[in-house]
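Supplementary Note 3. Input sequence used for the single-chain structure prediction.
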Amino acid sequence: MSDAVSSGGPRVRIRIVLGEDAMLGPGKADLLERIRQTGSIAAAGRAMGMSYKRAWMLVGEMNAAFREPLVDSTRGGPAGGGARLTGAGEAVLATYREIEEITAEAGAAGIAALQAMAKGPGGTE
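The predicted structure, written as discrete structure tokens, is reproduced below.
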């Protein structure tokens, strides 16, 4: 992610509408990243402050929106369950993050102009 995002400065948040009921935005991308980090849909949801049910629903939406599932999960039990990004999931996440970066770079001058016109931090009061 860009320095502006990590420093709390202005940022571009992109939602890509792939179809009537299919979209990918910052929340779903963050969920994919957390699933990769934690190996668990439930833990990823908790880390984002969302319910287990909501996290599972979003994973289901993403898996249904693409030709191949983005997340592969195994049920819990004596050996425990888990989740991981599939190759398609890794590719979708990387592509989404690349689009974010390209957009932020291309719009940097415009974003700076908007920030200068805004009230509060970084803008005029």
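Residues 3-102 form a domain with the Arc Repressor Mutant, subunit A fold (CATH 1.10.10.10). The chain is about 55% helix and 10% strand.
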